[in-house]
């Protein structure tokens, strides 16, 4: 096992924190994703799995983390789009979810395509 990639770690932590932040505000009442139930746990599981899997430092793991990041980013865009169509005001949680997913995605892509530096032979 290697150390955790800091970009994936920060993206995962931000994704976990985002489910506790206000997502929407409708007529002065704000709601977090934790209040909705199952969807919040889905994002927490994806974030925790991304962090833990990145410790394995294998190429196939980063492909899975890219998929997790894409799922988070696409669902965040979907929630933002839905909020634009309704009378709701978007909260900080939606943007934190989007940035966290982008962090997992970018960190995984960087690690997947990072070339290993050969050790010098002496």
Low-pLDDT sequence parts = none
The number of helical segments is 4
Proportion in β-strands = 5-15%
Cα(first) to Cα(last) distance is: 27 Å
General shape = elongated
* Helix fraction by DSSP (H/I, runs of at least 4): 55-70%
Biggest β-sheet description: 3 strands, antiparallel
Counting helices, strands and paired strands, the structural category is: mainly alpha
Task: Tell me the count of domains.
Answer: 1
What are the secondary-structure elements, in order, as H or E? HEEHHEH
Tell me the number of strands: 3
Overall pLDDT metric: 88
Radius of gyration: 17 Å
- Biggest β-sheet: strands ordered side by side in the sheet: 2-1-3
Question: How do you describe this structure in short?
Answer:
65% of the residues lie in helices and 9% in strands. With 122 residues, the chain is mainly alpha-helical. It has one domain (6-113).
Provide a descriptive summary of the structure in words.
With about 120 residues, this protein is mostly helical. It contains four helices and three strands. A three-stranded antiparallel sheet has the order 2-1-3. The chain is elongated. The chain has helices at about 5-20, 40-55, 60-85, 90-115; strands spanning about 20-25, 30, 90. The protein has one domain (about 5-115).
